[in-house]
Write a structure and sequence with these properties.
Oligomer: single chain
Number of domains: 2
Number of strands: 10
Strand content: 15-25%
Structural class: alpha+beta
Bound molecules: adenosine-5'-diphosphate, magnesium ion
Strand order of the largest sheet: 1-2-3-5-4
Largest sheet: 5 strands, mixed, barrel
Radius of gyration: 18 Å
Distance between the termini: 40 Å
Length: about 250
């Protein structure tokens, strides 16, 4: 289970991307980037963050620690910004938090060097989860203490927006021509050889067990949260074995 904390103070909005995550302080005195259950795609974005973040971590990639964050919507009452106020008010209950990497820099593909091995692992992972949000325009990679960290896995696993078509959708190739790391000659073959065997049914069960039940209820066609957890695992298991042959666009 992810550690659970409670928001004690809303600090400020992070206005870089579209979803307006907030910087908050919690009852454990930690500072977190908060992703709101009441934002745009809401719960599915948060599920994608948990599945991809926890999977990436288990594959040895760097991802800030994830926590669940309980929020009292009353915190919204004192917010002068209407958009922020609405987000806080509509996000009572369980939200997602991640460790705020203080002093991190946005990754600049022209200013930093990444080895073909590391680029290969990240590109292969993005292909696995079908991440469409790691372009050179918007890398969603941070540079912190000299290393590359992965953030923002909300726009992945497009198939979870249409479960009946999931198998067909997950069979599609992955195009890397826009990928932030395409220019680093990613060694995808080596990455696949090292990482694909790690993506087992057991590992995916462990990863999907981290999704809070509260985000899994009421999905049409699924009687229980564990059925939906298995639906998240299935396309990833299938894709892990073969996706390296369907990655296109890199040099
Ligand atoms: N864990 C983190 N530590 C430091 N800064 C972060 C962290 N997560 C996000 N940020 C900053 O906030 C911005 C927006 O977060 P992101 O997860 O990309 O959400 P979105 O793009 O949906 O708004 C990032 O581009 C980055 O600058
Ligand atoms: Mg982003």
């Amino acid at each position: 289970m992810l550690t659970e904390v409670t928001v004690t103070r809303y600090i400020l909005p992070l206005r870089e991307g579209g979803s307006l995550p907030g910087l908050v302080e919690a009852d454990d005195l930690g500072t977190y980037v908060l992703k709101f259950t009441g934002a745009g795609q809401g719960r599915k974005t948060l599920i994608a963050e948990v599945v991809c973040g926890e999977l990436a971590r288990r594959l040895g990639l760097r991802v800030p620690r994830l926590v669940t964050v309980d929020l009292d919507p009353v915190l919204g009452l004192g917010e002068p910004d209407q958009q922020v106020q609405d987000l806080l008010k509509s996000s009572g209950g369980t939200n997602l938090g991640m460790d705020f990497l203080s002093g991190a820099l946005g990754f600049d593909p022209l200013a930093f060097e990444v080895s073909p091995e590391e680029a290969g692992r990240i590109v292969w992972f993005d292909a696995l989860v079908n991440n469409v949000d790691r372009s050179w325009r918007n890398p969603n990679l941070l540079r912190w203490r000299g290393e590359v960290w992965l953030i923002d896995h909300g726009a992945t696993m497009i198939w979870h927006h249409n479960w009946p078509g999931a198998e067909t959708s997950a069979a599609r190739p992955y195009d890397t021509s826009d990928h932030a790391l395409a220019r680093f000659a990613p060694d995808i073959r080596a990455a696949a050889a090292a990482l694909a065997p790690l993506v087992t049914e057991e590992l995916l069960a462990e990863v999907t067990a981290e999704i809070p039940d509260a985000w899994l209820v009421d999905e049409p066609g699924f009687a229980a949260p564990d059925d939906l957890r298995r639906a998240y695992a299935r396309p990833l298991l299938a894709r892990a074995a073969t996706i390296h042959d369907r990655i296109r666009g890199h040099r």
